[in-house]
Write a sequence for this structure.
C-alpha cells in the first residue's frame, strides 16, 4: 500500500517536472576548418542553429570557428540563446592565444582544460548532440556522447566524420547507440528531440517503478 502511494506521489511529481522542465540544450559538433566539408555544410549548420532556436531550445557550442560558429549565428539571428564552452582559461587567452571568436554567443564559459577537457564538459552539459561534417575533435565528442549513451543526431551529406559515422558504428561492434540520421536540418532536430524525450520517459518510468525483490516488496532506503 505504501509503495502504491509513493508511486502515485512520484508520478504527480514527474508530471509537474514535465510541465516546468528546463529548455533542452543541444550541442553542435563539427569541423572548425570547413574546407573539406560539403559545400553547403556551413549553410546547413546555420539552419540547425536556427531550428534549435525556433524550437525554444538552447544551442551549446565549443565556442569555436567553422561549423559551430555558423550554427551559433543561425541561432542568434533567430533570437535564440547560445552558450559556448571554451578550451581557454580566460577571455584574453580565448581571443589572443586560441584565436577564437566571442560573437553570436550569450555566454562563454572558459574551462581552461584545452580542447580534450572542453570536449568532455560541453558534451556532458548537453541533452543531445548534433554532428555536422567534422574531423578528429568531432569524433572525440561523438565517442564521449556515445559512451555516455547520450542521444545524438548526425547530419548526413555534410562530409567528414558525419558521413563516416555509420561505418564507424558498424565496425566498432558496440551496438547502434542512441543515434538518428537525416540529411535535412529541421527533420534531424525533430528526430533528436523525439529521441531525447523517449530517453527521458524511460528514465522517469524507472524512477516511478521501484525495484522489487523476490517477495514483491520494494527496496528500502
Amino acid at each position: 500500500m505504501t509503495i502504491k502511494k509513493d508511486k502515485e506521489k512520484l508520478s504527480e511529481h514527474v508530471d509537474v517536472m514535465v510541465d516546468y522542465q528546463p529548455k533542452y540544450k543541444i550541442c553542435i559538433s563539427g569541423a572548425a576548418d570547413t574546407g573539406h566539408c560539403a559545400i553547403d555544410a556551413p549553410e546547413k549548420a546555420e539552419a540547425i542553429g536556427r531550428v534549435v532556436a525556433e524550437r525554444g531550445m538552447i544551442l551549446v557550442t565549443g565556442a569555436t570557428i567553422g561549423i559551430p560558429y555558423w550554427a551559433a549565428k543561425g541561432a542568434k539571428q533567430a533570437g535564440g540563446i547560445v552558450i559556448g564552452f571554451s578550451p581557454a582559461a580566460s577571455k584574453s587567452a580565448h581571443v589572443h592565444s586560441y584565436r577564437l571568436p566571442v560573437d553570436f554567443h550569450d555566454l562563454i564559459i572558459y574551462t581552461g582544460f584545452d580542447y580534450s577537457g572542453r570536449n568532455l564538459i560541453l558534451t556532458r552539459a548537453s541533452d543531445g548532440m548534433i554532428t555536422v561534417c567534422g574531423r578528429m575533435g568531432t569524433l572525440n565528442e561523438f565517442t564521449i556522447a556515445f559512451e555516455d549513451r547520450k542521444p545524438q543526431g548526425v547530419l548526413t551529406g555534410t562530409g567528414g566524420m558525419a558521413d563516416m559515422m555509420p561505418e564507424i558504428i558498424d565496425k566498432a561492434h558496440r551496438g547502434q547507440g542512441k543515434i538518428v540520421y537525416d540529411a535535412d536540418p529541421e527533420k534531424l532536430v525533430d528526430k533528436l528531440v523525439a529521441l531525447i524525450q523517449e530517453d527521458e520517459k524511460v528514465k522517469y518510468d524507472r524512477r516511478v517503478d521501484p525495484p522489487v525483490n523476490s517477495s514483491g516488496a520494494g527496496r528500502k532506503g
